[in-house]
Amino acid sequence: MAELTFFIAFLAGVISFFAPCVIPLVPAFLGYLSGVRFEQASRWTLLKHSLLFVLGFGAVFSVLGVLLNSLLSNVAYTVQLWLGRIAGVIIILFGFYLLGFIKPKFLMAEHKFKVHKFKSKELTSFVFGAAFAVGWTPCVGAVLGSILALAASMPGESLGLLLGYSLGLGIPFLIAGLFAQPFVLWLQRHETLFKYYNVVIGILVLTLGVLVFTGKLALIAGSFSFLNKVLL
Questions:
Q1: What whole-number distance in Å separates Cα of residue 182 and Cα of residue 119?
Q2: Minimal CA–CA distance to 180: which of 1, 22, 16, 45?
Q3: Using CA atoms, how far apart are residues 83 and 107, in angstroms rounded to an integer?
Q4: What is the pTM assigned to this prediction?
Q5: 10 Å Cβ neighbour count for 36?
Q6: pLDDT averages per 10-residue partition of the chain, 232 residues
Q7: What's the domain range around 174?
Q8: How far are the Cα atoms of 55, 113, 124, 133, 169 from residue 142, in angstroms, in the given order?
Q9: How many degrees, rounded to 5, is the angle at CA 44 between CA 40 and CA 48?
């Protein structure tokens, strides 16, 4: 079960990075972190600030995972069962949002955050990453919200879930920092790939919500473990 949920969270992190409201901003974002236009910054400078940014939001998600585990891991089985059902409903609603069936105001509004620039660019990058963990734009909010709901319903695996999400979101950021200019060229060539993003991701989130609500995720986890044994 842990392997499957970690994979789901990792995939959700990758999806968040490639969201249409995030990925076009990455070049400007890298320049902001390094203090110059990204074309003028060295590869290693961009990688360093990307790494500090990733560590910033990774630290916040790790603390959140520990809190969820400590607060909810000892609740009764019946409570955990209802947490799973509530989480399933929440995730299903996020799926409906991505498919355009519902438009809640708290997701439609853009959540902006400001970070004070410190004298140390390195500290600014780390704090900016931490701020990113608590502020999001609409199309990331549904995916992140789904992972948070899943983590609340599975407190024993909440730390692994949020670490998986951090890795899924963080690794593409590191790759973008290391290969900034080729990344921008790739982005320009594949703009049409993101045209149907919300529909595809909405279907995936909706499916996840149904599995969580019906308690079938454990069955999928069993199949996942079996495939691992066969393949490995």
A1: 30
A2: 45
A3: 22
A4: 0.82
A5: 14
A6: 82 88 77 74 85 90 86 74 89 89 70 63 85 68 86 85 92 87 80 80 92 79 51 40
A7: 2-231
A8: 22, 18, 27, 14, 15
A9: 110
